Amino acid sequence: MTVNLKRRTLLKGVPAAAGLTSLPLFVQAAPGAEAEKTWTGFALCDSCNHVPACGIRFEAKGNVIQRIDNWKENPNHWLCPKGWSTLQRLYNPNRLLYPMKRTNPKGAADPGWVRISWDEAYRTITQKMLETRTRYGADAVMFYCGDPKEPRPAVQRLARYFGSVTYGTESSVGCRSGCMMAEQLDFGQPNLGGISAETKVFMVFATNVWAQPANWWQQLVAAKERGCRFIVIDSRRTKTAELADIHLQPRIGTDAALAAGLMRVLIKEGLYNRDFVEKWTHGFEKYAAYVERFTPEYTEKETGVPAKLIVEAARMWAQGPGSFTLTTQSLSHNSNGVNNTRALLLLPVIMGYIDIPGGVPFMKGPKGLGMAAYGLHPKMIDAAWWNAKAQKDRRFDLAEVPLWHDMKDQVSPNNFPEWVAGGKVKMFCGWGFNVNIWPQPDVYNEAMGKLDFAFSCDYFYRADSHRNIDIILPAAMNYERYAPFGAYGPNVAVRKPVKPLGEAKEDWRIALKIGCIIDKPENFFDGDPVKACDFVLRQYEGCDWAGFAAKLPAVSRLPAPKPAFRKYETGGMRPDGKPGFNTISGKLEFFSERAAKFGYDGLPVYKPMMPLDDTYNLRFLNGSRKPYITHSKTRTDQPYLMEIEDRLTIRIHPSEAEKRGIREGDTVEIRSRFGGPIEARAEVSIIVPPGMIDGQYGWLGKMNTQKLMTRDHRDPLSGYPCYFEVPVSVAKKA
């Protein structure tokens, strides 16, 4: 598929942004030979949370992109509707192209934005940073990266050399890191699972196809065709569940009970790998005693999954080798989220499906290399500084979420309003900041208005998030950025971008330039994102940016260990090179010594969710995905997608709709104990079972589902809000 766009088409139907309509649309290329030259460039899509994202090949004339296509050499090269519409976002006439500052007091209906120079913006921001550090200490300046995740390495480096440990991200508010905690507690390292040609049984944990790269579905279909059997654990009848040989539909938040029920069958029928469990796991006896009460009948009562299916699924799972796919987010978004995830992840452990052909792969990539979301390389962010006790002890979340604090170098910022009220945070430095990631977003916006100073970098002025900040900076988009490069295991894809429109600048360039002013320029690569990327690549012998760029469109490869199995036997799973796993016990842990160390239950116990009642009698899965929506992204920025769906839509089961007199397409009102009403369009669908509804968060105004959520009910291990738990009522709007 190839997309061609004309400017007239781009502008059609795009509403004007209040306060910014007087700005030029974009800077035209200068006349001459360069303006007429046609060339090919390469970019990465940032429309959803796959980090790094899918490859885009584009053709440009001068500095204007005229056509986009799949970058076929890129490992992720199947663009979805969100990717195909990014060119419309690039040339959206409402785009922010110049630094702006407010001239009216915070709280005013009109911030009074006026254009300023980059010199003034940098001077004002750095002066405020230095003044705040002098008066209150470096930690009073909060650094925050939202979405896209790409700015994180540069911003975290800025926070480190400025000296502030108050660095948070959208992942530390509520994203994949909750599931990562579970993976690290069980396995000693993150692991999302995976499938191979030898996999005979594949278990899908709450993973819809729309939450994965587009080529993931092709992998599953191919596995199905070669005879792999599928067990899907998901409350909804998703597209992924269409592949299921057995579909287990637990009630939201009862995954730990379902896992315990499956475990009991495996143990009672002697189907598990006894030798592996005795040699390579810790705490099995405690967990076996715990699951004893989870008979198939009791598990059915707690989860809603028929007892017969529980037994059938356990027996099928035992016919492996088997592996799994873990949702990147949803399992951890309830008040028992980390433990629910931990319990499911123990299913491959008890069978010994760990690092074997057809089992759960534990890939070893280039030493030290991470995704953009995790700093790309320890030397880029100075990981040792973040993990040193002197820094750890200063963090504001130490008492709030002690296990999270111990495991993560990102602060948990969900108590940001309390930090501001208590005088702990005085200044906010944001990249891709969206206040609507939080429950009760107005509380966080009010806190933002009480700061001494705040700035944010973004593609557009967004009144919901930016109305109480002092300066907004124009961020270059995915077609205009060099940094970061794409990392796909050992494969690396560098970019070849167009020049940013107007005066927009790359997120990395902004962070590095600020660093050059407040610290030594050599610590910030003289403000050059390419030099910063080259610094990471040169950690690997024979690798550099220029060499990789010369090979385009081919992706390059960093040195990495050769694939091998059972690395836990030879020391390949631990940084000290000893056999075993990188946990406190040195084994895969049914009982987590790390969790117990901080006063939590060492077992992945089951705890019921917030109770339903006669008024609020439906469970709300807040944050479901569709192929053309990722939370609050891709809305009016990309109007093509608004033509597919132009408002919040909730799905409700036919039986629940009939009780309430709701028909397909009706406008309904949703309420919770914590807020409402929120308006939505009803889609009557068997995708959701009775007793629940689902919908996307990120719509604003009267469709903002985050206003139904609560700040006070969280997972105690991760500190995550409970987006997939809150009881609601749904009624047809009068």
Helices and strands in order, then pairings?
Layout: E1 3-4, H1 7-11, H2 33-36, E2 38-44, E3 55-61, E4 64-70, H3 81-84, H4 86-90, E5 100-101, E6 114-115, H5 118-136, E7 141-145, H6 152-162, E8 167-169, H7 170-174, H8 177-187, E9 201-205, H9 215-225, E10 229-233, E11 246-248, H10 255-268, H11 274-280, E12 281-282, H12 284-290, H13 296-303, H14 307-317, E13 322-326, H15 337-351, H16 378-381, H17 383-387, H18 389-392, H19 402-407, H20 416-421, E14 427-431, H21 441-449, E15 453-458, H22 463-466, E16 471-474, E17 486-488, E18 491-493, H23 507-518, H24 529-537, H25 545-550, E19 556-557, E20 588-589, H26 593-597, E21 618-622, H27 639-644, E22 649-652, H28 654-659, E23 667-672, E24 675-684, E25 692-695, E26 727-732
Parallel strand pairs: 7-8, 7-14, 9-10, 9-13, 10-11, 12-20, 14-15, 15-16, 21-25, 22-24
Antiparallel strand pairs: 1-4, 2-3, 3-4, 5-6, 5-16, 17-18, 18-19, 21-26, 22-25, 23-24, 23-26
Helix pairs in contact: 5-23, 6-23, 8-15, 10-13, 10-14, 10-15, 13-14
What attributes does this structure have?
Rossmann fold; seven-stranded mixed β-sheet; Dimethylsulfoxide Reductase, domain 2; 30% helix; alpha/beta; 734 residues
Polypeptide structure, described:
- It is a single chain.
- By secondary structure, this protein is α/β, with parallel strands linked by helices.
- Among the domains are: 121-174 and 372-481 and 505-534, Rossmann fold, CATH 3.40.50.740; 192-351, Dimethylsulfoxide Reductase, domain 2; 618-732, Beta Barrel (Barwin-like endoglucanases).
- It is 30% helix and 16% strand.
- The chain contains 28 helices and 26 strands.
- The strands form six sheets. The chain has a seven-stranded mixed sheet with strand order 6-5-16-15-14-7-8. A six-stranded mixed barrel has the order 21-25-22-24-23-26. Strands 1-4-3-2 form a four-stranded antiparallel sheet.
- It is globular, with a radius of gyration of 25 Å.
- Residues 1-30 have low confidence and may be disordered.
